[in-house]
Amino acid sequence: MRIPLDYYQILGVPIQATADEIERAYQDRIQQQPRQAYSATALEARQQLLAVARDILCDPERRAEYDAHFLSPPPERESAPIQLPQTERPSWQSHGSEDAATPWIEVRDDRVVGALLILQELGECERARGIAESRFRDRYYPSTEAAGWETASERGDLVRVLAVAYLESSRESWRQGQYERAARLGQQGWDLLTREGLFGDLKQAIAADLAKLRPYRILEAVSQSGEGSWRKHQGLQLLREMLEARGGIEGSDRDGSGLDADAFLLFVQQLRPYLTAAQQQTLFDAEAQRPSATAAYLAARAQIARGFAYRQLGAIAGAQTLLARWEREQEVGLEQAVCALLLGQTDRAHQAAEQIADPDVAREIRRNSVGAPDWLPGLCAYSESWLRTQVFPHFQDLAQQAASLKDYFADERVQWELEQQQFSDERPYGPVEAQFWAGGAQAGSAHTEPDRAVPSATATAVATEPVPASAGSSHERAAPATGPPGDSRQLHPSQQRLRFRRGRLLLLAGLGVAGIATASYATVRAFQNLGDRSASSPTAPAGEALVLRLDRPTVEVPPASPSLQASQARQAIRDWLQAKAQAMGPEHQIGQLEQVLSDPMLSKRQASARALQRRDRYQRFEHAIESVSVSERSEESAQVEATVRERAQTYRQGAPSPESSYDSTLALRYSLVRQDGRWQIAAVERRDGNP
Predict the structure, then answer these.
(1) Fewer CB atoms < 10 Å away: N or C end of the chain?
(2) Cα–Cα distance list, 240 to 163, 243, 254, 289 (Å)
(3) Is the preceding omega at residue 600 within 30 degrees of 0, hence cis?
(4) Cβ contact 14:67 at 8 Å
């Protein structure tokens, strides 16, 4: 089977490596063991491939023959095949639209898993995944009698290789902000392990990643998709699953997302502006049944917003009923006052306004009601401001909606329902609505709702069946027994009082628009949690960062490799020595140091290079890394002991300075740290104690 590898890559050495460096690299790679538990057969196959690479590169004749083809253009390589072992023959292949050809070697079937282990160690998870998937299909669906699984260990090794490749590819996509792709790859790995019934620890690691990915997938789906798109519905479904796993909106972090209770509440608030009023009502109505005071409050706000914007008084009545159930656990005086006002219940609105606990809100309402027999003038003025600035901005379909009580009370259907005190949660489709559903109306225009929710139980409990609209007018309804809208001759005395109240509300609403001074209110209404928890703000306070950012994951992505390997340590030291030669050399190229060093060593070496440049001096280096071993390691740091031969020639004003030159073999201890997924050197010291 062809594997995209070359022998220099297998051992992790440059093309210019000496035989001694190749031997040391081979010994380092042999001492390294894959972090996953593979069978002895797989580990032996890996070791055999390393040995083949060492044998060819350490043999001058075979290496020269290999290099002649390795370094020549692809057509020449194909026209002049070299004589190498048939089982590991190097050649070239082009991948898709890549400009450069990629070398590959032919590997025996019993060594394929070993080659895949090497690919993963080199960070080539995508290539390892593609090869393992092809191999897995061939084994599961053999085209010949000779195909199929040869041993149980081969099957287990290939399953583990493929699952690890899914896991690492998923994490790489996560780092790049490709959350759906990361979830898809992780899910493939989880499904594979579930189907095979193998490696529970690896399956658990994948499941933990999927749980942490879920908030990002939700935010991405609801914020970057259209109102009724499939992606948005997918995001809402993921949010429901997350709520179920947490045990509700006030639940604890049982979903593995990494969001505690307070952070999750802020996360919900972050999502709300991307959801319509109907979507929020459906979501929070279901959550309120757990029961949940927070969900009930959010459902009530969605019903108030829908009812006012789309003239669905049944939704407002539903909100009023829902708030009444929780008034002992929460301070909802303002919301109850607004509901009563919009339903024409003037006495109840005044009484609710008197119960508002927020002193700033109560003071403002009283100030705008001076000279009136009740608080209705101030409540009208405040309600308009509250709906416009603190309610509508939290709904995708209402963010640009105007809030006019005058228009609301002037609506003929609203007037009729207020007189009858029969509130419907549906709006009959007249010409305006038909235009919208045909795609002609502007989103957010009055009386049209782009995304209807299933009527909530709280709304239908108090709403009567809507009377169908006639074809003649968008406001006509079948005439009730008491007479059509505008006819007061057959009204009951109580209905006449309601008509008088409606007339006064219309007058107050008009005055509120024309002459009642309204201030800009900075008070943000809070929704409360159950028990003794303090209130949480519906919107993040000014200057507070959002819980999640799609371009910057706040939940730490697990590292691709949990600890430093010897080959990585050797490469980090090699990069440092090359950067040192450039920074201290005649051109004083200091910029490369930032790529390989971390503070405190970075600052010290930059200062040394600049000081050498100021004194018109530079150095030329020759380095040879004789040995490397990792003595201590964790996921984020490591201690590496190395022996390095350093030959330095110092120059002053362009002339050699023999007294400052040296040729030494140094026993060094390097301290490495992981920075943004890359290992960098933070400190170095002599193991013999000399400076």
Answers:
(1) C
(2) 28, 5, 14, 14
(3) yes
(4) no
Q: Which residues pair with 469 in a beta bridge?
A: 477
Q: Angle of helix 179-196 relative to helix 200-223, nearest 10 degrees?
A: 150
Q: Alpha-carbon distance 580 to 612, whole Å?
A: 12
Q: What is d(CA 233, CA 227) in angstroms, rounded to the nearest whole number? A: 9
Contacts 24+ apart (CB under 8 A), 281-289: 281/306, 281/315, 281/453, 281/456, 282/453, 282/454, 282/456, 283/236, 283/239, 283/240, 285/453, 285/456, 285/457, 285/458, 286/240, 287/243, 287/248, 287/249, 288/322, 288/458
Measure the N-to-C terminal CA separation of the chain; round to a whole number of Å.
52
- How far apart are the C-alpha atoms of 43 and 24, rounded to whole Å? 19
Which residue intervals of the chain bear CATH 3.10.450.50?
A: 566-686
- Assign 282 to helix, strand or coil: helix
User: What stretches in the chain show pLDDT beneath 70?
Assistant: 70-102, 139-152, 225-228, 253, 424-563, 565, 567, 635, 677, 688-691
SS3 of 182-226: HHHHHHHHHHHHHHHCCCHHHHHHHHHHHHHHHHHHHHHHHHCCC
Beta strands across the sheet bearing 90-93: 2-3, 102-106, 90-93
Q: For the chain, how many helices (H) and strands (E)?
A: 27, 8
Q: Is the pTM of this model over 0.90?
A: no
State the CATH class of domain 566-686. alpha beta
Match 């998923």 to its residue by tokens: 170
Cα–Cα distance for residue pair 407/428, rounded to 1 Å: 18
Residue 448 Cα to chain centre, angstroms: 33
Instruction: Give pLDDT, residue 54.
Output: 93
CA gap 98, 100 in Å, rounded: 6
Phi, psi torsion values for 495, nearest 5 degrees: -70, -35
pLDDT at residue 67, as a whole number? 83
| Residue 394, CA atoms < 13 Å, CB-side half-sphere | 26
